[in-house]
Write a structure and sequence with these properties.
With about 120 residues, this protein is an alpha+beta fold. It has 3 helices and 6 strands, in the order H-E-E-E-H-H-E-E-E. The longest helix is centred in the middle third of the chain and has 21 residues.
């Protein structure tokens, strides 16, 4: 996705997110449960059988980095999230749904799947 497409998707997200919509931007999915919380979700590239906590934490960090890059690219997004609690989630997509692996909220990691 080039920068123009990214900025266009971000503008659409800013309009749709407050109404409870979820919007995929690149490899991330954004949603708001209310005006104070933004969920940023990404999915692992590994099978759960080969997943461990170190890999999961690395992928969660990648989700955070991708989101920070979006914020850096868009002053509109920066303004939109001002004062919001940003919640990061890593999941495993199995085509018919997804399984939560872990999340980070307020700097605290919560494990949703038992990993080695």
């Amino acid at each position: 996705m080039n920068k123009e497409e990214l900025l266009s998707r971000i503008k659409a997200a800013i309009v749709l997110l407050p109404d409870g919509h979820t919007l995929k931007i690149g490899d991330l999915s954004l949603s708001c449960s209310d005006k104070n919380h933004l969920a940023v979700k990404g999915w692992t590239i590994h099978n759960l059988d080969s997943m461990n906590k170190q890999i999961a934490l690395s992928e969660l960090q990648e989700i955070k980095s991708l989101f920070i890059n979006m914020v850096d690219a868009s002053s509109n997004l920066k303004d939109f999230i001002n004062g919001m609690q940003i919640e990061f989630y890593l999941g495993y997509d199995y085509q018919l749904g997804s399984v939560g692996i872990c999340s980070e909220i307020n700097g605290e990691i919560k494990w949703e799947t038992l990993l080695r």
